[in-house]
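pasting for ref. prot 1 ->
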Amino acid sequence: MSSVVLFALLSVLCLSAVKAEDPYLFFTWNVTYGTASPLGVPQQVILINGQFPGPNINSTTNNNIVINVFNHLDEPFLLTWSVLRLHAPRGASS
């Protein structure tokens, strides 16, 4: 009887140990106006955390990304995402 209880206890411990969740990445973005010269002429641009262009997000598959966006502009701000997947060719070193 004790071997059955021990087996059941070990099974529960093993199953609870494999519970894992994909990692979370957290960002805070402050969107403001600023001046930059992307074409050589100073002009008004939209900055994210004082940067133009905005920050990169480096992530891997299945990461959960949480971005808190604070819009300090005087108009609504629309943000779109482009997903770029890079795969190294066979035999290429990283």
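and prot 2 ->
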Amino acid sequence: MTVYKKDNLDGLSDKSIRPAPGMFPGRRNQAGQQRPLHMDTYKGVVYPAQTDAMGHMTVQYYVAAFDQAMWHLVAALGYNPDWRHERKEGWADVRHEINYHDEIRVGDLFSVRSEVRKVGKSSLVTHHRLMNTSNKLCAEIEMTSVYFDLEKRVSKALPEALRNTAQDWLSRQSTMN
């Protein structure tokens, strides 16, 4: 596994970093087929205040869970959240496509699994799946997120180390298909 150090990470902290544990699981399912690469990026529970009149979690909280998952995914790829302040660099979501498959209700535990689908010059297309504790798909989103200069309010090229890690993810995924 490649270990990225500060000298090739566009200003990351002094510590060496590795992709988060579980980032490249690539395990086989019960039928012996290779599972897609994903990373567990968020875990939550549905609280009463997060539900609507029909008793299931409202749309805004699905989006919030997916947004938090995205932050954990890009951090695992090499983005340092401190760059928002230190370098005035961050992310702007420009596209969301959400599909709802099953309801989750008060007290239900859930997790989000995330993967990279495409790496552009200044953007990432990611896919996030919200699963219940029975491993049933409840909702999924494909989002396009643009790396952003927070002062100039324009897109900018992805940091090289982040792009390399995301490309590595895609390469490993394509060799498993």
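The chain has a mean pLDDT of 84.
Helices lie at 59-77, 83-86, 160-176.
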